[in-house]
Amino acid sequence: MMGSPGCNSTRELAGRVLTVGLPGPRLDRATRRELVRLAPGGILLFRRNIEDAAQLTHLSAALHALPARPLIGIDHEGGRVLRLATPFTQFPPAADVGRLGVRIAHAVGRAMGVELASLGIDINYAPILDVPRPGASDAIGDRAFATAPHRAAALAVAFLRGLQRGGVLPCGKHFPGHGGAEADSHLSLPVVRRSRLALARTELVPFRAAIAAAVPMLMTAHVRYPGLDARRCATLSPTILRRLLRDTLHFTGVVVSDDLAMRAISDRLTAPSAGAAALAAGVDWLLVCHDLGVARRVADRLVDAAQRSARAAARLLDAARRIRQLPRRAEDRPSRLPLPVAAHLALAERIYRVAAAARTC
Fold first, then answer.
1. Is 229 part of the annotated catalytic residue set?
2. Cα–Cα dist 327/216, whole Å
3. What is the mean pLDDT of residues 169-173?
């Protein structure tokens, strides 16, 4: 089944291009009222929203039943980025998965997808497509599959295909590559000082492979690349998002921003200003995940921009259409998966053993 019911107003379109967060593990009356009014196209879950499998399944069902029928996403990469505690399988980081090759990367992606889909989750904000380089910040580090661009590409593509086979949409990140940044964009604005040619030979290799594999979503980096755009970080750069990503690399899927609350953005712009600038630059889906009041102000700014400018109105409509075209899971979702899954535990244990042996050599 494709997309949700059509949006009929600028206000609905502005909600559709937002992904928001929830304050707690339940859809209380006040939060539900705010979500109905805002009508976001997506909801991103964090640890604060998760107690156990039964609670999360119930929350997902309640969120899917909202009039806007938002897609539910989560960051669940493995290693240090795992939102689900035991009895969900605690997979090791991508770097350890990568030691065992593409078949295992696919198996891990499929296992994760099966577990997430059983809870009603639609999107996993993974895999990392970044290529880490020596001397860079550890913001990426072992979250990446490999340090060699083509190997990282093959492993990430195998993983994202596994996620899809398991029943969730993958979102590759962080375009055009966070692996060479010397700072963490959660804390400051990183700069990657690489030439366009050097970026093409390294950072862009996994993104090209993911696009060739029809990855449905890519997330932007709050990183500045003077070799591509001397002034703006990727999230706010039409040069990077339109000329490079759309026109040169021919990506036709949904462009997602990283969270606009990260300090690489928030130290310089308010969330409404950043949201309007990112949408104008070519982002389709804006992550505003830590305050529903801030998300509402972003939506207000998008509405105001669309009412003032035909170009902004057309960009908003285009972004909302791309999001509506994402495939949705069937309404008859599978019964909750019995946890833990023995085969998944065995797979994770095998990877841990190989990684431990490699570290002792």
1. no
2. 9
3. 98
Instruction: Give the confidence band of 184 by pLDDT, cuts at 50, 70, 90.
Output: confident
Catalytic residue chosen out of the listed positions 58, 75, 186, 291:
186
Helix (H) or strand (E) holding 286: strand 286-288
304 is known as an active-site residue = no
pTM of the complete model: 0.95
d(Cα 288, Cα 43) in Å, to the nearest integer?
A: 9
CA dist 279 and 316 (Å) reads 7
Q: Choosing from 96, 122, 142, 258, which is the catalytic residue?
A: 258
Both structure tokens of 98 = 């990568």
Asked whether residue 5 carries a pLDDT value surpassing 80, the answer given is no
Of 130, 145, 220, 211, residue with least CA distance to 178: 130
**Omega of the bond leading into 87 within 30 degrees of 0 (cis):** yes
- Mean pLDDT over 49-73 rounds to 96
Q: Which helix (H) or strand (E) holds 81?
A: strand 81-82
167: pLDDT strictly greater than 90? yes
